[in-house]
Every structure is written in structure tokens, then in C-alpha cells.
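Protein folds are increasingly written down as C-alpha cells. With that in mind, we are printing a sequence and the C-alpha cells encoding its fold.
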Amino acid sequence: MSLTVRKLLDLPSLRGARLVAGARALERPVSSVSVLEYSEPSQTQSELFEAISFEGGEIVITAFANICNDSSAQVAVIRRLAAAGEVGLMLYYVGTFVPEISDEVKEVADKLSFALIEMPPDKHLRYSDAISDICEAIFRQEVHASSFVTEILEEVSLLPESLRSVSTVLRMLRDRLRASLILSDPQGRVINISSFPHGREEELGRLFESGSLDSAWHVDKARIHERGMGSLMLTVVRENGTGLTDDQLAMTVETLHLFLVIWSPKHGQAVIAELVRAILQDESLKMRRLADLFSIDVKSIDTMFTVKGEGLEESLDEVKSRLEPYIARPIVDLYQDSIVLFLASSMGGDVLEAVSSLLAYDGDRLLVRAFNLKDTSAVRKAFLLVKSSADLASKVYRRKVLDLVDVQLVDYFLSVLAKGEDEIASVLSPLAVLEEMEEGTVLTDTLEAFLLDADMSTIQTSRMLGVHNNTVKYRLKRISSILHADIMKAPQNVMLYRALMMRRIIGLGG
């Protein structure tokens, strides 16, 4: 049996702790413990957060010291942890840092079935006591467990869809066996590696492919049969101690086989899903290996289409089938609640435009197109930007199909907002004269629609505002007169465009 959240609360180091939210997580297994202290979700922190390989099933320790008075930021952190498959959070020093746990924080923890544990308010409590206690309890459970097949599959079933992957299962097996695992195809090409200790995947991959795994290491091999799809080879490596027992090897094979049967009915789709993850996580070695399986030229990938919205998990198969007439083997999958498709501009503008129209068929969803991405590092940076700012950009531009440059511009204005009132006032200054006038709001709204939404067309502007075309022309002439500027020409209209963008973002609460 696993160490569950319920059993965790009975440990000596948690005496006096209270589960204040997330009761539905009580029976969830706890596989590890980690500490989170950066907390504040800035753009840099977002990139760090996305770079972390979350195992799922962790309990997180924090005091929210950096965001102790910001319940909205606390909610954002909990949402992120829950999305990454974490089980819950142990909050220390309530009353010292966080004055009290807000109802907003409790509500989101309940909604996400995320265990929120309030530790006793004792200032002398140490993280290390709980870490030691939890790790020892996990180890005891693993030692006495007669079988881990069902346990690991149950843990996987509780993870978000985006984390139910071969990589995650291999990491769980790695931690359980204290061994490195290599999954390869019948030709001996590596599909996936999880190394113990963590972080040695590239070294292990080179040794495996060169056939030079040290003879002093214990190497166990087994074949994983997949009905209708041939087979995969599993290699388990232990650098010290003995190899796996026959039972351990059999359970490892069974775990992977059942996972592939249940969650990856088509091996090719599983590999494509792993390739999408490798590209977005900028894992170059893994990406090249997976691409070789399907003879995909990763270097030619310079375009990314990202779809955001509701119900994408259910729509993924439909999207794949719609893509088939245009792309023989689309590199597309669901990643962190978005459908991500990778393309090469060499496919031609007609294909790219057709695919764009296909993905934008549902008006309730948001499509962001990123072109001319020079490498996978740029791909990853673009995806993080889309994830953080695309929803606001859609509201700013009032449309559901955006290019990456649109999102980049909104992100730039968000960075200006963060600099404070002086910077904001400087950007807004071209509108100051208009805003002070009695008719200022009407004139500014007209100019905003004209420059931001109507491609500088008076006819489109009149339709948007519900007024006569001559009325729009009169107002624009009046604006030019007041500002002593030709609003049809740069650089005057560029400065006005910046000011109007800032005005709209502020109005949206950006």
C-alpha cells in the first residue's frame, strides 16, 4: 500500500497539522516531497517552473513567504502545482508569514482536489523534520510492498492528462527501483530514458547506443510485447549493488505493458506525443532520437500553431483526422491544456493557410500562429509566451486568430505596466490632450477602433461603432486638428497606436 495523504497526517512531524481543504485528495498516494520557496509567479519564474520535470504525486512544502499577503498569487501557485500533478501543499508558519489562509485559496484547493495542510503555528518547526519523516515513510511502504504494478497505474490515473506519459511512468519506476530505465524500439533506437540518479540521460543514451555500458553495471533486459505493434525493448541499469529480481523485472514489464495498452493504444501516437513534449521542453537529445523513429527532420520545423480553449482533449482525435489530407504524419498533441502542432514553412503557404483555417473552425477557441522560429529554444519561449499572455491578447485584439507578434506586443505592454506610473504616463501621453476634453472619450474610442480594430478603414470603423461613415471621418479630422498630427502616417500614428494599446490593456485590467 502507498503512503497516502491520510497516512501522512499521522506522521509524528505532522502532529497538530490540519487538512483545511482538498479532502478528496486524502486517499491519493504521496510519492515524494519537495520544497517551494520562490513562489511569486513572474515571467522568469514561469520559465523556471516550466523547465522542472514534475514527477506527479509530490507533496510540496512552503511558507509562501514572498507572497504572504497576496491570495491571488497563492491561488496561481496552487493551480500550477495541481496542473503538474502534485498531491498537495503543507503550509508552514501561518500567522507569521501568511496571516491566515483565505477562503479563496481554500476554495480552489477544494475544487482541484488538492490537499491543503496547515501546519501548527510553531515558529520552531523545521522543514527537515517533515522531509525526513515523509521520505522514511515512503521508503518503508516501498520495501514492504509485494507488488507495485497496480499502485503505479493508480498514481498515473490520478495525474492530469498532459502528464500521463511514458516518461512519467519511467520516472516512477526509476524512483521505485533506484535504477535507470531505457526504452528502445526493435532496431535498438532509444525512445525514452529515465536515469538514476536524475540528469544523466544523455550520458546513458550515448553508452547504450555505442554498446559500451560498463560490464561492472548490472543490466537487465526484457521485451514488452504490444499487440499489433511489434515490441519494445526495456533495459534496466543499476550502477551499484545487484540487478533486479525476476519478480521486480516482471512487474516493471507488466507496468509498462499495461500503461501502453490503457493509455497509448497506438505506439506511434505515443512517440509523437513524446516528441511534442521533447520539443517544447527543449530536450535536444531526446528530440533527435524520437524524430529519427519517423524520419522527421526536426531542423525544418520553424512554425508552431497553438490552440487554446475548452474540451480540447476530446477534440484531439478529430483535429488529427482533419489534418491528414494535408500532412501525412502531423506532429500534434495535447500539451498543458493546449493543442500544439509543429510545421515547416517549406510545406508552402497554401498548406499553412489551410491548416490555419482548419484549426480556427471553432470560434470559441483561440489559435496562435508562430512563424520563423529559429530553433527549439525559440519554440519553447514562444509557447511559454502564448501560455501566459495569449488570452489577454485575444481580448485586446478582439479576435480569435493571432500571430505570435500580437502576443509579443501585448507582453511588451505588460512589462511597461510593471515598471510603474511614470512609464505608463509616458506611453499614454499622446492621448492626454484628447482625454482632457469634454468630447474626449468619444473621440478616443473612435480613434481606438480606427487604429486597433478596423485597419484604418472608416467604413469598418463606422460599422463597429454603429455610426455613419461621415461621422467617423468628421471625428478623425477633428482628432488630427486637436493633436496637430496626421493620424494616417507614421510616426504619429505609431505613437498613438502604442498609447491606445496601453489604454485598452488597462481597461481590461491587464
